[in-house]
TrEMBL record:
Residues 1-428 form the Major facilitator superfamily (MFS) profile domain. It is a multi-pass membrane protein. The chain crosses the membrane at residues 7-28, 34-54, 66-85, 91-112, 124-145, 151-172, 184-203, 209-227, 248-270, 282-303, 315-335, 341-365, 377-398, 404-421. One of its GO terms (cellular component) is plasma membrane. The keyword Nucleotidyltransferase does not apply. Its main location: membrane. This is MFS transporter.
Amino acid sequence: MLPIVVLCAAELVNVLGVTVVVPALPAIERGLDTSGELVVTGYAATFGGLLILAGRLGDRLGHRRVLLAGLTVFGTASAAAGLAPSAEWLVVARCLQGAGAAAMIPAALSLLVAHAGDRHGRAVALWTAVGAVGGGSGFLVGGVLTDVAGWRWILLVNVPVTVLLAAGVATLVRPVPRQRGGGLDVAGGVTVTAALVVLVLAASASGPAAVAGAATTALLLAAFLAVERRARDPILPPGAWSDRRLSSASAVALVNNAATGSAVVVAAGFAQRELNLSPSGAGLVLLSFNAAVIAGSALAPRLSAGRPDRAMRAGLVVMAGAALALAAGTATATGPTGTGALAAGLALLGAGLGVSAVGSTTLGTAGPEDRRGTSSALINTGAQVGTAVGVAVVLGLAGADGYTAGWLLAAAIAVAGLAAVRKPQFTASPATPYDGARDAA
């Protein structure tokens, strides 16, 4: 059980790396006389962009080795960010933090699934719940640390945490089999990484910059596909394109985060602008979403009964219903009634996400053990891209004050995700139990 706890802690550190910075942005902007936007998008761009390459490296070099390297990069970059003398220094350090997280997450998830054995579904449920805890607590932790010790400590605190995590991985987590033979598709890795980085940046841009980013992303993806057709050992194994379990899981991961990420952002604006809640009051209302994700994650293994497609389908339906309920229930509600309706809708939304996310992760990581790093990376890439693109598209179409339209669009995204699980034959065989004798990584 201890290895599972250590590996889930890596996911907690990653999620906190994103959310803990948000309440500190005003203080960072005042302290370094800059806009805080790149502090967030720099991390997201390198994290989302490097996931596939990092997952493939884990398959080749060994996931424990890559996880330890990622922790080292993340901790070192955290120290550099906390000591940053300028805005430029801070942004570069945050980009390096994102790169370290990209190495950590596919490796940690692959190791978790391998160590869990026939408790695959429960381990994934714990992983999802821990991510929800990080998402909910990050805003509170970031605010408290900023008020008590200053914004630099939200970054410096990662240094001892990553040291302890690295020690735990080195002593408690055993290596798992890695893919033998072949080389690394450098050209494929560079083009797909560049495409994903530009995509994440384009999603946070507007006007001509967004159009240029979308066009550049399309060109880079076309170049990536051309490279992959000719590569002797492509970064995405040929089977990844035809594996219905993995493609379905990745698509649902994208839809999960696109629908819920956009709905939560709309809810945050509604809470402060329409219900006149303070930032901390709005944060407390949003905790209902994170608490429900934990509950949904815990229920998912029982609800799916070895059929993760059922969990995905049920979760998407619940998410769509929750978004519709938010659109209807808050249309005319004000004061405590509006706050209660918002919290209830967010709780239903979070429960749906918890169920669907466990289903998609369980299904996507049920493939060959030596390709699990790539599988984990694709699922996480789908989730990362879904958040960035979903929020950008929904806010762009609905407008900053179009709350009802925003929730209706989120519901439509969730319904569209059902197409990825329309076939009933998806099953997930139990993960192969760990056999450390086959790897020395």
